[in-house]
Design a protein that fits this description.
globular; 15 helices; alpha/beta; about 15% strand; 11 strands; Amidase signature (AS) enzymes; 2 domains
């Protein structure tokens, strides 16, 4: 059950008013975090939560989710004239019914189509830990809203790391559940194959509270999770930036000193994953989802997003189906090979790049691929995965735990134990 001590229902109205005052003043770091706020609705006494496990929680919502009476732009301008949503997305309805107070739609990569978080239409929020660096994405504004203390919880999506990457870059917790755990009804898609609804917060407990409210059936996502960790020697750790490598080694040392078992071994399934062209699956599905706008108003797109959608033509329909077949085979193999262990890796192998490092397309594409590599394992394998922050000297990294599907609650409990070790 959710820990209701995480947020104070009695002070939530004052806290919400303070958030909107900070945004109005464009207080340092808060610019471009939200595409639009729900201030009038949020501060209405008629919408003040009275009860529920999330009563008192301030929640930001990625601009992919329908919120009744507001336009869902998905970070685009071609959807800015769409009619307002007639009802909440299913996940948002569950949050509201549980007493959550919704702050607004947060900024994001257009159509959620990158792991870096840049948006040329609505500008890009700065990293909460270093304003010279990017926030990570695609749920950029959501992560920053939590890191700056504007929101207690941020709701996002995760197609290849889009909750866990910005969580790692901004020093907070990011959780990607099993895909089937949370309904995506009323959430605009990037890739139906790889999208999951995810959550970010300052603590694992807060992520768990939101997950328990949004999940369709908690009992179905409580399969046992191994407390033995395995670091794959053939994937995810071979080319870390030195500061990331040093911090990850320090995190492992902390874990082993606390009595956790950490071993190193290759996983064959991770070599096979290299044959799965995730880029083609997302390109085809994104292109199909927004075909009308792609054909009629391509000039309105972020050019980098448009170029990825064009890549759908590089391979045919048979190749697309073969990719889906390959993924279907990888998922059970991942579960079998992982057996009685939980995968342990750095969330991302790099620090958040500086804005100046992603000006050029070549550098942007390189950094984007690096950021997406490790967290995408959970999306391809339909697993659950959580990024926990770990500070070493002056560097904060994400330490990522990944397990096969339907082990969500156990994985969150294991992540809480790491959180205590890292504190």
């Amino acid at each position: 059950m959710a820990d209701t001590s995480l947020w104070n229902r009695e002070t939530v109205q004052d806290r919400a008013a303070n958030v909107f005052a900070r945004l109005d003043r464009e207080e340092s770091g808060t610019k471009h975090v939200f595409i639009q706020t729900f201030a009038t609705q949020c501060l209405s006494t008629e919408t003040m939560p009275q009860a529920g496990p999330l009563a008192g929680a301030l929640v930001s919502v990625k601009d992919l989710f329908d919120v009744k009476s507001f336009v869902t732009r998905a970070g685009t301008i071609f959807l800015s004239d769409a009619p307002p949503a007639e009802k909440d997305a299913e996940a948002i309805r569950r949050l509201r019914d549980a007493g959550a107070l919704l702050l607004g739609h947060t900024n994001m990569t257009e159509l959620a189509y990158s792991g870096l978080g840049l948006n040329p239409h609505y500008n890009t929020p700065c990293n909460a830990l270093d304003p010279d660096r990017i926030p990570g994405g695609s749920t950029s504004g959501g992560a920053v809203s939590v890191a700056l203390g504007l929101a207690d919880i941020a709701i996002g999506t995760d197609t290849g790391g889009s909750c866990r990457i910005p969580a790692a870059f901004n020093g907070i917790v990011g959780f990607k559940p099993t895909q089937s755990a949370i309904s995506r009804q009323g959430c605009k898609p990037l890739s139906q194959t790889l999208d999951s609804v995810g959550v970010m917060a300052q603590s694992v407990a807060a992520c768990r509270a939101a997950f328990e409210v949004m999940a369709k059936d908690n009992a179905d996502f409580d399969r046992p999770v191994s407390k033995r960790f395995i670091v794959p020697t053939n994937f995810g750790t071979h080319d870390l930036e030195p500061v990331i490598a040093n911090a990850f080694e320090a995190a492992i040392a902390r874990l082993t000193a606390a009595g956790h078992s950490v071993s190193y071994a290759p996983l064959n399934v991770l070599d096979l994953m290299a044959e799965f062209p995730a880029w083609h699956v997302t390109s085809v599905e994104c292109r199909a989802n927004y075909a009308e706008a792609f054909a009629q108003s391509p000039e309105t797109f972020d050019p980098r997003v448009l170029s990825r959608m064009h890549r759908a033509e590089e391979r045919g329909a048979v190749a697309y189906r073969e990719s889906l077949n390959l993924r279907a085979a990888l998922i059970p193999q991942f579960e079998t090979e992982l057996a009685d262990a939980t995968l342990l890796m750095p969330t991302v192998p790099i620090q958040a790049p500086r804005f100046s490092e992603v000006d050029e397309d070549a550098s942007f594409n390189s950094k984007n691929l690096q950021a997406l590599r490790n967290p995408s394992v959970a999306n391809v394998m339909d697993g659950c995965s959580v990024s926990v922050p770990f500070w070493h000297e002056d560097t904060c990294i994400g330490v990522m735990l990944t397990a096969p599907a339907k082990r969500d609650l156990g994985l969150l409990a294991l992540a809480e134990s790491l959180e205590r070790v890292f504190a």
